[in-house]
C-alpha cells in the first residue's frame, strides 16, 4: 500500500529533477535523454499492476492410445481450458514431424532419456512432462473467468526495453564514438565520418548480438533453478547501486562503472588509428570487448530473464530488438555530427553530464530488479 501511494509521487519528483538538469543541455541530447527516461517510466513503473499479456500459446504433445494423455485431454475439456486458452494438440506416435519436434524440445531442455515421454505440455518456454505436472501447472495458472481468456502477468518486453534504454545511454559508447568521429573528421569529411559511424554501430550491433546469443545458450544449458530469478534481480539491483555510487561519489572505491582506466590508453590507440569507414567497422568488433565492463550489466540481467522465459527463436527476436535499441543513440549521434554537431561539443556535454547518465542507468536497473523480485517478469 505504501508503494502504491507514494511511488507515483516519487517518480514525478525524479522526472522533474532530471528535466531541470536537462534544461541546460544541447537540444538534441536533451530530447534524446528525456524520451528515453519517459519511455522507461511508462513501461516499467506507470503500467498498472493489472496489466496482463496473453499467455504463450500452449502445445500439448500426446500419443494415440496413451491413457495418461487421454486423461489430460479430458481434464482440459472439463475445466474449459480449450475455450479459455490457445492450446494446440500434437500427436507423436503416428506423426513423425511432431515426434521429431518433441525430441528436439527434449534436447534443447536437456531432459534425460528416462524422463521423456507423453503427455508433455509446452507453455511459456517450459516443458511440463507427465499427467500430474501438467495438472498442477494448469491449476496454478491464473485464469480470468470474466474475460474468458487464459492470461498471466508479464512485463518481460517492457523490462527488456528498459534494460536496453539503460544500456544505450551509458557514457562509454558515446566516448568511443565521439573519439572515432573526431579522428575521421580530422582526416577526411563529414560524409566519410557518417559512413564510419554507421559501420561502427553495425559492428557493435553484430558483436553484442553474437555475444548475447552465446551467453543465452550457455544459460539455457541444463535446467536453471528457480532461485536463479532472484540472482538476476540481485544483479540488477547491484549494478544499479554501483551506478548510483558513481553519481554521488564518482571514482570512489577505486573504480567506476565504465571502461577501466588501465584499458583506456590502448583502446584510444586502436580508435585513433582508424582512417576509413571499413576500418571503423572492423575496429568496432575489437572495441566491443573494451566496452563490456561498462555495458554488460543490463545485458546480463536481460539475458538471464530470457533464459528463464523463452525459447531460442523468441529469444533471438528479443535480442535483435535489444541491440537495435542499444545502438540507436550511436546512430543518432553519428547523424547529428554529420548535420553539423561538433564532436568536441558532444564530448563536452558528455563529460558535463557523466554523473547524470550513471544516475539514470542506476535508477532503471534498480527498477528492473524490483519488478523481477515482484514477479512481474
UniProtKB/TrEMBL annotation:
<feature type="transmembrane region" description="Helical">
    <location>
        <begin position="356"/>
        <end position="376"/>
    </location>
</feature>
<feature type="transmembrane region" description="Helical">
    <location>
        <begin position="198"/>
        <end position="219"/>
    </location>
</feature>
<protein>
    <submittedName>
        <fullName>Uncharacterized protein</fullName>
    </submittedName>
</protein>
<keyword id="KW-0812">Transmembrane</keyword>
<keyword id="KW-1133">Transmembrane helix</keyword>
<keyword id="KW-0472">Membrane</keyword>
<feature type="transmembrane region" description="Helical">
    <location>
        <begin position="312"/>
        <end position="335"/>
    </location>
</feature>
<feature type="transmembrane region" description="Helical">
    <location>
        <begin position="270"/>
        <end position="292"/>
    </location>
</feature>
<dbReference type="InterPro" id="IPR051790">
    <property type="entry name" value="Cytochrome_c-biogenesis_DsbD"/>
</dbReference>
<dbReference type="InterPro" id="IPR036249">
    <property type="entry name" value="Thioredoxin-like_sf"/>
</dbReference>
<feature type="transmembrane region" description="Helical">
    <location>
        <begin position="231"/>
        <end position="250"/>
    </location>
</feature>
Amino acid at each position: 500500500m505504501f508503494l502504491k501511494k507514494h511511488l507515483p509521487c516519487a517518480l514525478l519528483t525524479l522526472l522533474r529533477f532530471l528535466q531541470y538538469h536537462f534544461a541546460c543541455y544541447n537540444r538534441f541530447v536533451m530530447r534524446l535523454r528525456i524520451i528515453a527516461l519517459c519511455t522507461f517510466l511508462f513501461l516499467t513503473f506507470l503500467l498498472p499492476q493489472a496489466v496482463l499479456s496473453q499467455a504463450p500459446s500452449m502445445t500439448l504433445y500426446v500419443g494415440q492410445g496413451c491413457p495418461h494423455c487421454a486423461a489430460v485431454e479430458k481434464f482440459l475439456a472439463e475445466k474449459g481450458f480449450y475455450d479459455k486458452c490457445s492450446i494446440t494438440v500434437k500427436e507423436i506416435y503416428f506423426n513423425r514431424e511432431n515426434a521429431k519436434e518433441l525430441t528436439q524440445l527434449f534436447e534443447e531442455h536437456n531432459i534425460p532419456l528416462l524422463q521423456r515421454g507423453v503427455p508433455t505440455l509446452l507453455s511459456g518456454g517450459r516443458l511440463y512432462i507427465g499427467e500430474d505436472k501438467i495438472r498442477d501447472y494448469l491449476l496454478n495458472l491464473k485464469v480470468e473467468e470474466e474475460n474468458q481468456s487464459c492470461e498471466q502477468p508479464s512485463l518481460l518486453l517492457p523490462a527488456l526495453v528498459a534494460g536496453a534504454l539503460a544500456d544505450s545511454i551509458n557514457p562509454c559508447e558515446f566516448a568511443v564514438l565521439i573519439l572515432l568521429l573526431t579522428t575521421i573528421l580530422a582526416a577526411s569529411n563529414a560524409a566519410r565520418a557518417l559512413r564510419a559511424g554507421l559501420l561502427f554501430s553495425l559492428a557493435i550491433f553484430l558483436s553484442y548480438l553474437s555475444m548475447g546469443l552465446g551467453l543465452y545458450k550457455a544459460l539455457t544449458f541444463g535446467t536453471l533453478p528457480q532461485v536463479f530469478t532472484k540472482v538476476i534481480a540481485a544483479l540488477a539491483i547491484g549494478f544499479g547501486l554501483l551506478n548510483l555510487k558513481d553519481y554521488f561519489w564518482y571514482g570512489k572505491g577505486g573504480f567506476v562503472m565504465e571502461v577501466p582506466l588501465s584499458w583506456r590508453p590502448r583502446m584510444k590507440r586502436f580508435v585513433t588509428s582508424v582512417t576509413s569507414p571499413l576500418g571503423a567497422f572492423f575496429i568496432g568488433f575489437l572495441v566491443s570487448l573494451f566496452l563490456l565492463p561498462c555495458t554488460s550489466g543490463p545485458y546480463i540481467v536481460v539475458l538471464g530473464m530470457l533464459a528463464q522465459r523463452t525459447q531460442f527463436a523468441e529469444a533471438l527476436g528479443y535480442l535483435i530488438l535489444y541491440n537495435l535499441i542499444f545502438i540507436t543513440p550511436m546512430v543518432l549521434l553519428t547523424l547529428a555530427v554529420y548535420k553539423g554537431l561538433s564532436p568536441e561539443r558532444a564530448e563536452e556535454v558528455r563529460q558535463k553530464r557523466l554523473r547524470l547518465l550513471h544516475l539514470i542507468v542506476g535508477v532503471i536497473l534498480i527498477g528492473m530488479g524490483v519488478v523481477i523480485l515482484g514477479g512481474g517478469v
